[in-house]
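Q: Hi! Curious about what Magnesium transporter MgtE looks like structurally. Here's the sequence.
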Amino acid sequence: MNTQQIIDAIDLTDTVEELVEAKNFTGIVEAVTPLSTEQVTALLERLPIEQRAIVYRLLPKDNAIEVFERFSPALQRDLIQGLRDGEVATIFSDLDPDDRVWLLDELPAALAPRLLHGLSTKDRQLTSEVLGYPKGSVGRRMTPEYVSTRTDATVGEALQRVHAQLDDAETVYTLPVLDGSRHLIGVVSLRDLLRSASEVGISEIMQDVSAMTAYETAEAAARRCAELGFLALPIVDREDRLVGMLTIDDAARILEHEETEDAARQGGVEPLRRPYLATPVRSLVSSRIVWLLVLAIGATLTVQVLSVFEATLEQVTVLALFMPLMIGTGGNTGNQAATTVTRALALGDVRPKDVWKVLLRELGVGMSLGALLGLLGGVVTTVIYDPSVGLIIGLTLLAVCTMAATIGGIMPMIARALRADPAVFSNPFISTFVDAAGLIVYFMIAQAVLHL
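A: Let's find out. The predicted structure is below.
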């Protein structure tokens, strides 16, 4: 599916909206039927909630389930609110257990028991197993529907199990190898099974495996799955017994969700969890207003600093001209460091215990940047004004860059150590703190140089 095909589907939005308004259901079917699943998903994401439910009802059942699975959990919740109970029960029963849990995490608590009650005994048991793990853990995102084999089995016996469970299993490309107590011993790929003779023992072709416990974070497991290039990552309990598999498509979905969340919070907003045009205006407002209030309160620190050094400004008014430079340079330097370290934490390049290494590196980076900017700023200011002002600007840029880079580098690591989201402690808070601290440094250097 290329970008142009998605654009073509989106271009139908106005046409479909007009057909819905006119209650021309035949026209809607004719417009939507030629579209692929990806195109239908892109189209529905742009429709208002009420119209989305109407168009969704007109989709063929198989296509409807595929489209529903492509929606974000928040969009799935919105759609369910516009469907009848019978339609909701059908959709819910057709989902995989891990996808049901994604949805249940979004739905009102009172609705979850009703949906679970409508499942078959087997489906309810599988879903309850996944629901039993803590929120945010990989146990809540794994699938319990997989095909396993035994160490004492043959290739032929393993392939028979694959054929027998082909319709029920969510993944068959990687088979975990278990002992008699369901402890994970290794894995064997479907490719290796197909190219081996049926009488060959599984123990002869299986490979060692890297597994994660069900209680570790979903993000950590998803990154491990992606880094190792696994089609499915085995998930075990605390006794190394296999309890599920994290598939690569679910890993990609988790990483997309986490990176979207981090990017939003680094920009001072809460993640939308829906496509932009499918997000109500009130949700856009609520995602931004809290951060704006927090930052506005933080900005009062800057006002307080200016009031303390008001007399200094009155004596040397030229200092006011360079305040935006100091504030901007410090904020940008801190944000650069915070963004770099937050990303390194997410990728596993650094860990909270590396805080001193990061501090020393960012201290060196900040001093180097400050020296270069300070030299340039000091020379230019000396030429335009006088040497004393140039010295103030040069020394302040050196100090502010060093301080901002160091603080920006260690704050995300402190946040991770406190089990908080590093993105929350990144750009917005660092900018506010560095603005106030930078001005204090600026005026203190000015007072020292000018003997005020």
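A: A fun detail: The mean pLDDT is 84.
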